[in-house]
Design brief:
Pfam families: DUF6546
Helix content: 25-40%
InterPro entries: DUF6546
Organism: Lasiosphaeria ovina
Largest sheet: 6 strands, mixed
Strand order of the largest sheet: 1-2-6-8-9-10
Structural class: alpha/beta
Protein name: DUF6546 domain-containing protein
Length: 248
């Protein structure tokens, strides 16, 4: 999608596979335009006549696919394989060639805003994302909302690669003034994100470099707006302002 913004173009991209909603993440609807909701059950039991109840029961039975996590119209735990599939990362075509060149991407002056929203469950491989950013010579806005990875190993790799991306921004996107980073999660995709006794996500020590790198990058870029939810901790972002305190 493109639109005029600040004298330039805003580019928003997303990707999905038509089969994403045919199995573990099936888009269940009783009829066209009907939302996924079971809050009406109590009302229906009291007010619906018998033929209507029977019709509803038959409709629910049609959505009984235990192999894909559906039990009579209700979604149960989704397998790790299904969660991995719907959160796949996209890689630039030819990126893994021995030459490592990305010459197929042209340099672009017109694009001033680039967005990858959380509505796109498929993410962009971080090295590929960095190569794309290098080609936007006048980028002013960058909004990136990736999903929390479904395995700890993938999440750790994501954080290490994202650290490199953040550290490279002063060189790749010198005109960047507005940065919005948000890492989303859900009980369906991430049912077992480790937390400590206070409910905070574990692994904060592995994300500390991200917070400090983001603080340094935003100073070098002289950014006007920065938002980074769930990807970095404010404790680390403002580390240098706590000079009198021991390092965390």
């Amino acid at each position: 999608m493109t639109m005029v913004m600040m004298g330039g173009l805003s580019l928003e991209i997303s990707a999905f596979s038509p089969s994403d909603y045919q199995h573990g993440f099936r888009d269940f609807r009783l009829q066209d335009g009907y939302p996924i909701s079971f809050n009406f059950d109590a009302w229906a039991d009291k007010h619906m006549d018998w033929p209507a109840k029977r019709e509803r029961a038959e409709q629910l039975e049609q959505h009984h696919v235990p192999a894909h996590g559906w039990e009579k119209g209700r979604q149960g735990p989704v397998s790790l394989g299904a969660r991995k599939r719907i959160t796949e990362e996209l890689t630039l075509r030819g990126e893994n060639n021995a030459s490592g060149k990305d010459s197929q991407l042209p340099k672009v002056v017109a694009i001033t805003a680039f967005t990858v929203r959380r509505q796109s469950y498929w993410g962009i491989n971080t090295p590929s994302l960095e190569k794309i950013l290098r080609k936007f010579l006048c980028l002013n806005y960058f909004i990136h909302e990736p999903w929390h990875n479904v395995t700890p190993e993938w999440q750790q790799l994501f954080e290490s690669e994202h650290l490199k991306l953040i550290e490279a921004l002063p060189k790749t996107s010198r005109k960047l003034r507005n940065l919005n980073l948000f890492q989303n999660s859900s009980k369906t995709l991430n049912p077992k994100i480790p937390t400590d006794g206070r409910g905070w996500r574990r692994g904060a020590e592995t994300r500390r470099p991200l917070g400090r790198a983001l603080a340094k990058t935003t100073r070098l870029l002289e950014t006007e707006f920065v938002s980074a939810a769930f990807l970095v901790d404010a404790f680390d972002f403002f580390h240098e302002f706590r000079a009198a305190l021991p390092p965390p």
